[in-house]
Amino acid sequence: MGHTGMDTDVVIAGAGPTGLMLACELRLAGVDVTVVEPLAERSGESRAGGMHSRTLEVLDQRGVLDRFLAEGELQPVGHFSGLYLDFDESESRHPYPLMILQSAIERLLEEWAAELGVRVRRSSGVSGVRQDEAGVTVELSTAEETPATLRARYLVGCDGGRSTVRKLTGIDFPGTEATMTALVGDVELPDLPEDYVWVRRTPNGDYSAIAFEAGWHRVITSEFDQVADRDEPVTFERLRESMVRVAGTDFGMRNPRWVSRFNDAARQAAQYRKGRVLLAGDAAHIHFPAGGQGLNMGVQDAVNLGWKLASVVRGRAPESLLDSYHAERHPVAERVLNNTRAQSALVRPGPQTDALREVFSSLMVFDDVNQYLRHLLTALDIRYPVDGDHQLVGRRVPDADLTSYDGADCVYELLHAGRPVLLDLHGSADIAAVAKGWGDRIDLVEARSEDDHWPVPALGEIPAPTALLIRPDGHVAWASAGTPDTSALRTALATWFGPALQG
Fold first, then answer.
1. The predicted structure's pLDDT at residue 1
2. Contact (CB, 8 A) for 290 and 206
3. What is the pLDDT of residue 48?
4. Residue 355: pLDDT above 60?
5. Phi, psi for residue 473 in degrees, rounded to 5
6. Rounded to 5 degrees, what are φ and ψ at 101?
7. How many CB atoms lie within 10 A of CB 5?
8. Is the distance from CB of 309 to CB of 322 less than 8 angstroms?
């Protein structure tokens, strides 16, 4: 049990990738957490199916990436709205997207969560939310006749685009309405040509077929200027008929595992936090699923929020730290909504779009254009609005090779415990003296960089810093290029990790 009078420190609504990742982050920080999920068991559906470089880095930072690599397949090329895109991210140790089914992602995250001691309470959906100055009372609808309640310090809604938590809390969800309907399913396609790649546009829409495992394809058909009623049943026959209309054939489509529907509605929560209730993942933002960005963004929301919420719950940081979650993640989702709207426009049928795609294709021969579009999808270039003069501040830290006294070979190994790291690359006695004031909550590591320069997305090669303060999410809170400014370091430590120890 968590705080006095509480059933748990944090209730997370939703056992999808975002909710499970957040639960793991909170448990790493010693926070008591309960995940509530309406479904009695994991769904066999796999709406998403891929992890980009930054998400792979996040999992590497926690030491669990190998579990996911073992069940997926790396893909060195991709596309931006069906236009070929080279995904060789030379600035990352994980340059390629990993094609892996969402069902596998959820299973692996839930297994990790269980190892950490997370409670997942299934057949329990949120039906009421009441918050006060001390906490949140969460009412649950369950299989039992009598509704259950949980009392917690905070509630985080990770319960999808139709989020009950968001609605009950009264958070606005402005955006743009759907203009098209897409059907998706996992099927066998015995007659698909061997040379088929990416998205195919036709006068009637577009379609794609991605092989996720031997004999099976993720099929998507999109038909524009018609929006289906969301309550209209989705059947395999409708998917097959749509493929025939768009592609002129169904490629022998058979044996569906599941079918579903989506559209290009794009919405974003006006605020990611309202008192003691926060939103993450699809509960905070929905968009056309072009480029496989939704699941990735949700996982990264969780990693940004987890350590901050844990610091507040444990009394190490003021509640105002939670405001930085909206400040940092809301602009990221806004960028994704914009680029997915652009991708949706680029696949619409018609001569105007044909001309636009031709211009776009001619621009994509330039490396800078490819890099810009690649970063839109991978999020490796994200820089949070963090105070500091060094060009690394606010950015994700490169996974530089190290020679360290504790045996770590690279930066990301230092982040496995989910704690802040003060990395001293020049053996400064001044840094060691400052670190003592926060010795109960940060790890001081002395090491040497194997390289004089570090590759940084959007910046290129920059000189290796002499020291840097790394947040648990892998973003840089402070860095030094020469003699460390210990006053600025103290300010950064207090800003992100609370006041120094007394005495």
1. 45
2. no
3. 67
4. yes
5. -85, 0
6. -70, 145
7. 9
8. yes
Q: Token pair for residue 372?
A: 């810009």
Q: Is 3 helix (H, G, I), strand (E, B) or coil?
A: coil
Q: Is 103 helix (H, G, I), strand (E, B) or coil?
A: helix
Q: Which amino acid is it at 122?
A: R
Report the alpha-carbon distance of residue 231 to residue 19 in Å, rounded. Answer: 26
Spell out the domain ranges in the chain: 8-68+93-175+267-342, 180-263, 402-497
Q: Give the CA angle between residues 201, 203, 206 to the nearest 5°.
A: 30
The token pair at 16 is 């999808």
Q: Of 1.10.8.100, 3.40.190.10, 1.20.58.410, 3.40.30.120, which CATH number belongs to 402-497?
A: 3.40.30.120
Mean pLDDT of 370-385: 94
Quick check: 339 and 378 in contact, CB under 8 A?
no
Q: How far apart are the C-alpha atoms of 164 and 275, rounded to whole Å?
A: 16
Give the CA diameter of the chain: 76
Position 503 pLDDT exceeds 80: no
- Helical pair 294-313 and 17-28, crossing angle rounded to 10 deg: 30
Does residue 2 have a pLDDT over 60? no
H helices present in 264-364, as ranges: 294-313, 323-346, 351-363
Distances (CA, A) of 289 to 26, 67, 73, 111, 183: 28, 25, 20, 27, 12
Q: What is the pLDDT of residues 462-490, one digit of tens each?
A: 999 999 999 999 999 999 999 999 999 99
Model pLDDT, residue 317:
93
Class of domain 180-263: alpha beta
Contact 2, 152 (CB under 8 A): yes
Distance of CA 116 to the CA centre of its chain: 20
Q: How many CB atoms lie within 10 A of CB 248?
A: 9
Fold observed for domain 8-68+93-175+267-342 = FAD/NAD(P)-binding domain (3.50.50)
pTM (2 decimals)?
0.95
